[in-house]
Amino acid sequence: MSEEQPNVGGIVPKPPEPRPEAEIMAGWEGEAEKPAVSICCITYNHEKFIKDALNSFLCQVTHFPFEILIHDDASNDLTPEIIEEYASRYPRIIKPVLQKDNQFSKGISPNFSFNFPRAKGDYIALCEGDDFWISEDKLRKQWSELEREPDCVMCFHDAKKIDDDNRFISDMKPGRSKFLTRFELAKAPFTPTLTRMFRNVGFPWRNETGLPAAMDVCLAAYLSQFGGAVYLGNDVVSAYRVHVGGAWSLKSKYQKIRLTVDSRLYIAEHFRSDRNDDLSGKASLYHMGSAVDEIYSGMPFLAVLNSFLKYVFFRAFWIPVKKVLWKILTLKKRWMLRKCDE
């Protein structure tokens, strides 16, 4: 796969057609049933793009086994049919879940609820169905880096922003220094989802509904409980697509602010660190402050303010009331038991 820097408007080449399954697996050391890396991909109406994503996964050159866990969220185009066709050609590598009802609209996170729980790999790599990887050694380089850096839980790198016709728009350079500390990662800095590989440490929220839409922000903060992060720069490159129907790229400024506020507030409420209480407190305070900053930056901000007020009332009103009600019920139960003894 070509990694040459195109001019603005130039074409970023699509990934080539992949080798047959037997040829891919011939270079693996170890059993396919015990993959080192689980590639987790979520799709929705990605008919035009899903082949690029799958081809870029299958073109990875590694000495270790990997699996492709793909979750289609009830697409109403030809995405499921394309996935099924690939799964029939690569049955030992591609493992699809094809939903009949859309899960995201119910507040369910497809990765947390359906992909992460079935991931067998020591590491998880992310890429959504409308993006693709450019570097064919992406998995190998990130795996090697995390193997060398036991104090790092996540590895990320640069990406190229492209349009729906694969024309280059701009570079995405998310990092400045090679390493992020645990607290820097707890701040959930910008690290493009399609560039992330992280340790399979086990994940919460599997059965929760009503989760924030921007769960990738929450994921970075959660991972910080297990280590820092390492940045590979442009040593590895992926392609992030901006297109009509994109889950994030074409949202308005105010929609993005509101989604970010929802995620910041969720982290502030749910971030827990059994390994470091100081980190937990600092992260919660940081995300509360960031939520307020986002609100101030989003004039007019009534929609965003609504999210913030719901959180404030939850913390200031409902939680204390719930504790009082619990005490009343406990006292009532004790009184009834005493009456029964009499």
Task: Give the biggest sheet.
Answer: 8 strands, mixed
Bulk shape: globular
Low-confidence stretches: none
How much helix, percentage-wise, in residues? 25-40%
Class from secondary-structure proportions: alpha/beta
Tally the helices.
10
State the distance separating the first and last CA atoms.
Answer: 83 Å
Read across the widest sheet, the strand sequence of neighbours is 3-2-1-4-10-6-11-9
Would you count the extended β strands for me? 12
Average pLDDT figure: 82
Estimate the strand proportion: 15-25%
Order of helices and strands: HEHEHEHEEHEEEEHEHEEHHH
Question: Radius of gyration over alpha carbons?
Answer: 22 Å
Explain what this protein looks like in three dimensions.
The chain is α/β, with parallel strands linked by helices. The chain contains 10 helices and 12 strands. The strands form 2 sheets. The protein has an 8-stranded mixed beta sheet with strand order 3-2-1-4-10-6-11-9. It has a 4-stranded mixed beta sheet with strand order 5-12-7-8. Helix 8 packs antiparallel against helix 9 and helix 8 packs parallel to helix 10. It is globular, with a radius of gyration of 22 Å. The protein starts with 20 loop residues before the first helix and ends with a helix. The model has no long low-confidence stretch (mean pLDDT 82).
